[in-house]
Every structure is written in structure tokens, then in C-alpha cells.
Design a protein that fits this description.
The chain is mainly alpha-helical. Helix content is 53%, strand content 0%. The protein is flat and about 60 Å long. The relative contact order is 0.15.
Length: 77
């Protein structure tokens, strides 16, 4: 008995003959993507029944939103 693996962004990129970054740009509605590329990626997404992984999206969001702390000034004078 085999468990079918859900398609990944890498699978979509391979099917559309583009990079993973380009697939991400299409998913995130980046205006710099040409219509032809958007169409190829969208077609691959539908053919593979790809859905973004919510836990991967959460990790990506957290990476850019890490809190910045002030450096320790040392003991008070």
C-alpha cells in the first residue's frame, strides 16, 4: 500500500519549466511575472492539484518577521 504524496512547489516548477521562485511569484500575485509564464504555472498548478502547504507558508512568514532586540549595553554605570 502506497501513500500518494501531495505535489510540491518543486513539482509545479518542473511541470511549468520555471524556477521555484517564479512559482512563488505567481502564487503571490507578483506583477513582474509575464502573462505567458503566469499561464504556464497556473496550468501546472491545476493539473497537479497543487495547494500551498500552510505550515511552509507560516515558516516563510516567520523568517522575515523575526523580532530585533537591542544589543546589551552591559552593566549600568
Amino acid at each position: 500500500m502506497s501513500v500518494e504524496k501531495a505535489p510540491t512547489i518543486e513539482d509545479v516548477a518542473t511541470a511549468a519549466h520555471v524556477s521555484r521562485s517564479t512559482v512563488s511569484r505567481v502564487i503571490n500575485h507578483d506583477p513582474r511575472v509575464s502573462f505567458a509564464v503566469w499561464e504556464a504555472v497556473t496550468r501546472a498548478i491545476h493539473e497537479l492539484a497543487y495547494t500551498p502547504d500552510p505550515s511552509a507558508q507560516a515558516l516563510a512568514r516567520r523568517r522575515g518577521a523575526a523580532p530585533v532586540s537591542e544589543p546589551d549595553a552591559g552593566p549600568a554605570a
